[in-house]
Amino acid sequence: MSADVALSTRLGRAKRLRRLAEAATGWGLALPAAVLMLALILIPTASAALLALTDYQLGARRVSFIGAANFVEMWRDRVFWQAFANTLIYTALTVPLSVGLGLGAALLIEADPTGRTAFRTIYFLPVTALLVAMATVWEFILHPQLGLVNVALRQIGIAGPDWLASPDWVLASLGFIFVWQQTGYNMILFLAGLKGISPELYQAARVDGADRGVERFTMVTWPGLAATTLFVTVITTLYSFRVFDTVAALTQGGPSNASNVLLYNIYREGFVYLRTGYASAMTLVFLALILMVAMVQMRARRGHSA
Amino acid sequence: MSGGHRLGRLARAVRLVVLTIGAAVMLAPFIWGLAASFKPAAEIWSGSLRLLPESFHGWENYTAAFNRAPLGRFLVNGVIVCGGILIFQLIFAIPCAYALSKHRFAGRTVIFGAVLIGLLIPIHVTAIPLYLGFARLGLLNTYAALIAPFAISVFGIFLFRQFFAAIPDDLIAAARVDGFSEWAIIWRVVVPASWPAITAFAIFSVTSHWNDLFWPFIVIQSTDLAPPALGVVYFRRDESGVDFGPMMAATVIVTAPLVVAFLLAQRRFIDGITLSGVKG
């Protein structure tokens, strides 16, 4: 009896020791990454939130806590609102287009074997291209007098605008460059989604009398792609919030802030005007946009699984 | 649409026409830029729609491009930065992902929670505090500043954790019986079993950092340290705007490495992007 108890406590201790050893190994393996996450992501994010409450200017000796004053200033700051609105307009223009075109390209490419590989390669090519470099070529193609686009338009009697210098067109032109690059990326994700739809579903639909392409699309393909479409839309939205490269390289936010966007405005306030605290406050607005998209995604996903 | 349905002849023709128009738009800047890199300024600015150069000026444009900016240096910087980032990301993310998927320990959920939060926070949010930190350490305008912020990839941890979870526990238990240390198990059992995930991640990582402009734009001031994307911005700044031939030559040079790599290893690139889509 007592020998049994002794044995079981010894076993218990051995078990506890083993568990402790496992915890130690687990922590040993995860610790370096955990420390880096803390130092490079979590603490900096918290610091940005704190800086947003100060009047800190880059290089200044003094810094004081000013509460929500940066946010009050932002509320009245026309340039900020313009950058904010431009970012949303840019997103509203580019996301439906690049998701729709990506889906269209994937469906057309999958519809028939002719040229399948070649088209897939060509459509994906822009994804691998250096964006700032290709933006330079687009600038050349969109040149008001001598660019390919306006020269071609002139031949059919249309006077094209100065795409990148007209306040009415600059955002759309930058958005076009984004769509050009993003469509191939979305196409690849949709192609993967299409592969995941079981052929039996199409057969079942045929048995049910869904013979036309449109019917097969609405009954099988589109529901089958729901998860993919949600993911593609979310990721494209996040990428499009991040528009920066083309603005920094081609327009510097101009003409007169017509192409100023959130990230470019943060860069300018923080690193050109050196208003660190104010730029940090804007960073939080940017983060809030991202979190909103993430929340919508979570909601939508829960909706699907329910 | 698959499912063994054959398209009619008309539908096939329409499909080809539409896809070809799309392909022309996708390829236009590559072809037009490449063509311009072979043309003299007079031809570039003639407003002609002629694709091929009338007089070949490629040699002059490419030597001018190399003389005007250290293009080779930009490419080497790109390799150093992307290579450095990738090595650190793998060294830190793989053991952490292994611990998260194959070990039970208190705090595991906390670490995984941090990973999930990290997935939502891009460099743009942390940029200002990181910049201040690097300034304090006197590390602005160095390779360290370019590489260090990306040494940890939460996306890498997330991706590898998912992949490692599919490795049978028996395989790892057997390795332990054979006297493998945890470290040896990671590099000699887990990693070899996970090459598809690792190459996919590598392609994803290199592509995004080769293309990144935002962070280098902030922390780098000298031409000698510029990765390709920043190099292009410097090149544009020095450019008077009239001499477009060398500009296009420079564009071709900095764009070529990744595009050529993609054309040589298409399957892997596409798998890499597709796999990065498991994030959803």
How many domains, in number, for the residues of chain B?
A: 2
- Terminal residue distance of chain B: 23 Å
Percent of residues in beta strands of chain B: under 5%
Which structural category fits the helices and strands of chain A? mainly alpha
> Count of helices of chain B?
15
Mean pLDDT of chain A, as a whole number? Answer: 91
Task: Characterize the structure shown.
The complex is a heterodimer of chains A (306) and B (280). Chain A has 13 helices and no strands. Chain A has 306 residues and is mainly alpha-helical. Chain A has helices spanning 2-51, 69-76, 78-111, 116-128, 131-141, 148-155, 170-195, 199-207, 213-224, 226-241, 245-251, 262-272, 276-305. Chain B folds into two domains: 9-67, no CATH class; 69-238, MetI-like (MetI-like fold), CATH 1.10.3720. Chain B has helices spanning 9-36, 41-44, 58-68, 71-102, 108-119, 123-136, 143-147, 154-165, 169-177, 182-193, 195-211, 214-219, 228-238, 244-264, 266-276. In chain B, helix 4 runs antiparallel to helix 13 and helix 5 (108-119) packs across helix 8. Chains A and B meet through helix 1, helix 3, helix 4, helix 5 and helix 6 of A and helix 1, helix 4, helix 5, helix 6 and helix 11 of B.
